[in-house]
Amino acid sequence: MLDYLPMFCQIRDKTCLLVGGGKVAERKAHLLLDAGARLLVNAREFTAQFQIWEDAGQVTLIRGEFEPHWLDFCWLVIAATNDAAVNGYVSDCATERRIFCNVVDEPQQASFITPSVIDRSPVVIAISSGGNAPVLVRLLREKLERLLPMHLGRLAAYGGTLRQRVKQHFHHLAARRHFWEQFFTSESLTESLISQDRQQVDRVTETLFSELSQADTNKTDSRSLTD
Question: What residues form DSSP beta bridges with 28?
Fold first, then answer.
């Protein structure tokens, strides 16, 4: 039985609250900003990085004590102070409003947890032990980081631009699946993307479409003859 529902949340341009202004909160802020959140940050004091973000218009800093009514405008909240009582209070207020809340280092008080992430955007892999074995999670992440090449995201993003064309070009699901298997395992395509040789990328892509279209046509003709 799962302790947590694995899911990816779309929070781009959505207001989120981070309570805490130290180094731990700073790491959480990086994560939220990378996901495109509209970020409010509340604390008595802030690290220099938070001030840099505020000057750049990336966050809104609210200095002073936490006020529960701020949650009325938020999609989710992260409590990342060094005061367990404050973190617990933030969690209680969020629960009353049915707002998801993460409490740093206290998963039992949290309604969601942030996993360890391998980022090859748009390919993202998340790993969690539910707070039971953080060292094991770190070791797994390091192993996966070594296994997954940095260009994986570039390959996935390029594939995304071809999805509609593939759907229109190959009418059978099996043919589409075969195309994508050849596409994602093509060494020449990978090398072209790494070197950013756009002309070669286009040539390899067109070759894949041509060869696999012919193979699909031959297979269809063969089935027609046996019907």
Answer: none
Residues near 149 by Cβ (< 8 Å), separated by ≥ 6? none
Q: Which CATH homologous superfamily contains domain 15-114?
A: NAD(P)-binding Rossmann-like Domain (3.40.50.720)
Contact predicate 109/89, CB 8 Å: no
Q: Give the model confidence (pLDDT) of 134-156 as tens digits.
A: 999 999 999 999 999 999 999 99
CA dihedral sign, ordered 188, 189, 195, 201? positive
Task: Supply 25's token pair.
Answer: 């909160």
Residue 223's pLDDT is what? 52
d(Cα 130, Cα 136) in Å, to the nearest integer? 11
- Tell me the pLDDT band of 130, cut-offs 50, 70 and 90: confident
Within the chain, all domains assigned CATH 3.40.50.720 are found at: 15-114
